Amino acid sequence: MDAATILATLVSGSVIGLILGLVGGGGSILAVPLLIYVVGVGSPHAAIGTAAVAVTVNALASLIGHARAGRVKWRCAGVFAVSGMVGAALGAELGKAFDGKRLLALFGALMIGVGLSMLRKRGKAEVPNVRLTRDSAATLLPRLIPIGLGVGMAAGFFGIGGGFLIVPGLTLATAMPLPFAIGTSLVVVSALGLTTATSYAASGLVDWGMTALLVTGGIGGTITGIKLGKVVGSRKGVLEKGFAAVVIAVGGYVTATSI
């Protein structure tokens, strides 16, 4: 790996971390395009596998802070994660079987859809104290399991953390408040990322040196993003819309160049 590639990988990791720290999610969806178009990874499958490992490590690191703050609904996370891991394993196998260019085109379309969904206003949570118990299981499990399975398949197929899908999925299934959905989603992101990463690593589609550089850059970017987020906290909505516009633009580029 030459100096230019090392620098590009560190910068890419920093960008991903910066976005995660600044707007609270979504950075992982840029990981694959950054690896392909900035770092120069030739294989879409290798980019997906490498991104999956980096996303998993970053999610685990972020989870620690949310868990300490008590913003994780562990039982809901466990059910969602287990069903999601089944979906991720299936999705990863399907993704590896797909032609690289077609996979990128679909990924670009997903980015456009995600960007558009980010522009929509989030609904307010209705059940702040939601818990998965024997009494609530009959209501929550039929929602958590199928939604988790579907989200997991998408995450595994595209090699993404899926936080932007998991958070609305959790709020849809349980009506938990957004801060809890974000914290809880990190458990699921870690589980799905690990499943996807394991599948791709077993096929030799992970560049471990590049992964280490992505994570290293991501740590610095996340710290910077969190600090900037505190400074511009009142304009976070504007930042999220700006990021959504970037995701849509990058998605359009990825789709156009892959057709």
Automatic annotation (TrEMBL):
Keyword Nucleotide-binding: no
Pfam family, one: TauE
Keyword flag Disulfide bond: no
Keywords, in A-Z order: Cell membrane, Membrane, Transmembrane, Transmembrane helix
Cell location: Cell membrane; Membrane
Any one of the GO CC terms: plasma membrane
Membrane protein topology class: Multi-pass membrane protein
Residue spans crossing the bilayer: 6-39, 46-66, 72-91, 103-120, 140-166, 178-202, 208-226, 238-256
Family membership: Belongs to the 4-toluene sulfonate uptake permease (TSUP) (TC 2.A.102) family.
Protein name: Probable membrane transporter protein
